[in-house]
Each structure stands twice: as C-alpha cells, then as structure tokens.
Amino acid sequence: MFKAKVLIKRRPSILDPQGKAVEIGARNLGLDNIKNTRIGKYIEFDIDTSDKQEAEDEVNNYCKKLLSNPIMEDYEFTLSEETPSEEEVV
Amino acid sequence: MSNLTFGVVVFPGSNCDHDAFYSLYKVLGYKVNFLWHKDTDLKNSDVIILPGGFSYGDYLRSGAIARFSPIMGSIIEFANKGGYLMGICNGFQILVEAGLLPGVLLKNNSLQFVCKDVYLSIENRECNYTNGIANNTVLKIPVAHGDGNYFVDDETLKELQDNNQIIFKYSESNGSITDEANPNGSVNNIAGVINKVGNVLGMMPHPERSCNPVLNKTDGSLIFNALVNNIFN
C-alpha cells in the first residue's frame, strides 16, 4: 500500500484571479509583504499495490487524465509506503 | 420538417437539460430525446446537446468528471464520425475537458458569477451552425456562468483564427468587439468555437434560453434552425 500526496499548481503563464482576490485580503490584514499568491490543489489517496512502479504509473495516469488539466495546470507528487497500523494487524 | 432528432444529455447536476428539451420540442417543434449519462445508447440522435448546469457539482474542475461518464464514450465516437455535437456552457466545459475542442474555461476574471444578456458577433458565417443567419445579425443571448473565461495559448489562438474556428465573440449591440463587452475575460472576446471539421460547437451563452417569443428574445432559435436547415436541406 502506498500513499500519494499530489500537488496541483496553476501553470505560471495562467492568470489566477482567485489568488489575486485573496491577496486583497492580505492587504486588508496589513500584510504588505505578501506577493504573488497562487492557489492550487492538494489531493491525497492510497494505492493498493506493493509494486512501487505500478503505483507510480497509476498516480501519473490519474493526474494526467483526471486530477489535472495539462493546459492550465502542472502536478507533482510524492509516494510513501504505508505499513498497516497495529490495530489493523491485530 | 425532417425527422431530425436531437438528443439532450442529462448528467447529475445538469440544469439546462429541460430548457433545451422545452425549446427544441415545444417551441421549435423538433423531435428530442433525453440521453441518460449512464447509458451508452444515443437513441439515433442526429444532433447531441451537452446542456448547461453543474455536472458532478463542478468538483475538481467544471466538466472534468462528466467527461468520463459512460455516455461520453459513445458521444466522442459519434463526434469523431462527424455527428453534430453542441456543448452549451457546462457542455462547452465538458467538450474542452474531453479534448474535442481546444482550450480551457477558467474562472471569470471578475471572480463573479455572470448572469445577463450579452451580444454576440458572428465571426464565421460559413459553418453549419450559422450559415443562413442574416448577414448583419448580432445575436442577443444570455450567459450564466462562473467559469467562462476562455483561454488558449497564442499558438492555439493563431490556429483557431487561421482555420476560422472562432464562431462567436462577445460584442456591443452593434457588433463591435470591445473590452467592455467581454463578460468574463475570455481571450479575444471568444464566446464560441468549433472544431476543425466543423461538427462540434462549444459556446458559453445559452441559445436554448432565447427561443421562446414569450421571453421577448428568440435569437437562440436562429442557431438551432440554421443547423437543421444546413444539415437536412
């Protein structure tokens, strides 16, 4: 079992009006040093296999086909092997 | 009138499916079937409409999940064989997610949901969706969307221009293209584009909401009628 943690970022060339609006909030809070706020997505899920390559391929597939839109987003991810917790073993 | 049949797809969260059905059947007198998203049978449709709404709650990205509905496999095959496929609003978002049209629809640059009548200049009068609409007509059709900001990179934009794929642009009532007339920040005021072959149209404005004379706007019917006339006469 692997756990994937996926980060989806808007590509640098794509405007992020949401980030801009949030930054107005930062100004209103008096946080004048905050610049270039950009909002992305964080997604995590498990992959039920013991084969790391297979897990990686599946994450790439999921990211390319559904989780991100390559026209406007880039993605990156980390994979970590999950050991079943003690309760589950018992 | 021909035996032409429209199919209107119903996704969970579609909310303009009944508007489309009503306008095509009750107002314009065409044969219409609903197509359920879990089915794969297109019920011999000649024209398929992907309606507006919020399919799958717009989760992840507008249109991203609907694109993988069982019916979409049949629809993509239908479109690739030259079948007429029209995506309106959320339907347009589904078409770009499915890769049937280029580009992507981002959040409106105002960050606000925009719901109002807009004017559309017809940029290409040669395609089957517009051919036959009187030459100086500027269409008045409502928009209602939060993610309608059409974006393509410069290279793709040039390709769209070179191939005459831009069908509608947001304009003033006299047809002039201005920044003020752009409700969402779309590149070059683009409101609707067609694929290279000319059978798949995506547009953010809602022609099905401007068909009934009772509403005092009927310009949407010009598009549906043009299509029927062009492909069946």
Tell me about this structure:
The complex is a heterodimer of chains A (90) and B (233). Chain A has 90 residues and is α+β, with helices and mostly antiparallel strands. Chain A has a single domain (2-84), classed as Phosphoribosylformylglycinamidine synthase subunit PurS (Mth169, Chain: A, 2-Layer Sandwich). Chain A is built from three helices and three strands. Chain A has helices at 17-28, 52-67, 86-89; strands at residues 2-10, 41-47, 73-81. A three-stranded antiparallel beta sheet of chain A has the order 2-1-3, with helices on one face. The longest helix of chain A has 16 residues, at 52-67. The model of chain A has no long low-confidence stretch (mean pLDDT 91). By secondary structure, chain B is α/β, with parallel strands linked by helices. Chain B has a single domain (5-232), classed as Rossmann fold. In chain B, 23% of the residues lie in helices and 25% in strands. Chain B contains five helices and eleven strands; from the N terminus they run E-H-E-E-H-E-H-E-E-E-E-H-E-E-E-H. In chain B, the strands form two sheets. Chain B has a nine-stranded mixed beta sheet, with helices on both faces. In chain B, strands 5-8 form a two-stranded antiparallel sheet. Chain B is globular, with a radius of gyration of 16 Å. In chain B, 52% of the residues are buried. The model of chain B has no long low-confidence stretch (mean pLDDT 96). The chains are: A alpha+beta (90), B alpha/beta (233). Chains A and B meet through helix 1 of A and loops of B.
